[in-house]
Design brief:
26% of the residues are buried. The chain folds into 3 domains: 58 residues, Structural Genomics Hypothetical 15.5 Kd Protein In mrcA-pckA Intergenic Region, Chain A (Roll); 82 residues, Alpha-Beta Plaits; 78 residues, Alpha-Beta Plaits (2-Layer Sandwich), CATH 3.30.70. It starts with 5 loop residues before the first strand and ends with a helix. By secondary structure, it is of the alpha+beta class. The strands form 3 sheets. Strands 7, 8, 9, 10, 11, 12, 13, 14 and 15 form a 9-stranded mixed beta sheet that branches. A 4-stranded antiparallel beta sheet has the order 3-2-5-6. It is built from 7 helices and 15 strands. The mean pLDDT is 95.
């Protein structure tokens, strides 16, 4: 069994966004940090960083946030941007404020544009992020699109052909799957992540996407009843669904 890594308490909590090392020391001196129900005052102490640490350590009476390697599923609302720096409403604003200060930083796994809603993953696990977005893993992303005009009946074959070339590009799209729901509504599953890909695919057929919602990523779907703006931390078995 691999030996657990250890970290100084002040360094660990600072990297998790709880404040500077000095602020963490002040918090400990005030009795705000407990480990196994005992007050922890010496923040220079090294402790094992184990998976059960959030159940053993409390900060101001609340369970410690998950340590590095967390994955967040968010039902992204309309009007929010997947960016750390742009002006306006950001998806990171939905999460606890201290999570903006974590190191490694939490980043979105791919992006949904401002006018696209639905399933969005965020993580501080760089290896997982690259596995999901890597073209070689062919992770399927399924979107529900409502369209300005009725489908003409040729879209499914075109999208599945592997011959569709988007405007301004010199490489055809990988085959995609279209599931028609009604004349003006369809599910489109793609394994690439090109810029505004779904919108541009329908534009290539002379149509316009009016609303776009991502419903699933691999075998992972939004939970029933999860409202826009709600989020949850994923378990290991849920993360594994992404690659099914």
């Amino acid at each position: 069994m691999a030996k657990a890594t250890t970290s100084r308490v002040d360094k660990l909590l600072s990297s998790m966004g709880y404040g500077s090392r000095r602020e963490v020391a002040q918090l400990a001196a005030a009795g705000g940090i407990t480990l196994d129900a005992a007050k922890l005052v010496d923040v220079s102490k090294r402790i094992p960083v184990t998976a059960d640490l959030p159940s053993r350590m409390k900060i101001d009476g609340e369970a410690l946030d998950p340590v590095a390697g967390m994955v967040i599923l968010l039902n992204k609302p309309l009007g929010m941007t997947c960016s750390h720096k742009e002006i306006g409403k950001l998806v990171y604003d939905i999460l606890p404020a201290r999570w903006r200060r974590r190191d490694p930083a939490i980043s979105t796994i791919g992006r949904l544009d401002k006018q696209t809603s639905g399933l969005l993953l965020l993580t501080d696990d760089g290896d997982l992020l690259h596995r999901v977005i890597s073209p070689k893993h062919h992770v399927k992303k399924t979107y529900r699109a409502t369209l300005a005009r009725p489908l003409n009946g040729t879209e499914g074959a075109l999208f599945a052909s592997g011959d569709l070339m988007l405007e301004g590009e010199d490489k055809p799209l990988v085959p995609a799957e279209l599931d028609v729901i009604s004349d003006t509504e369809a599910l489109l599953s793609v394994t690439e992540g090109r810029y505004h890909q779904v919108r541009r695919m329908f534009a290539a057929t002379g149509n316009h996407v009016e609303t776009l919602h991502r419903e699933s990523l691999g075998g992972l779907s939004l939970p029933d009843g999860m409202a826009p703006g709600q989020w949850k931390l994923l378990r290991e078995d849920e993360i594994a669904l992404i690659f099914q």
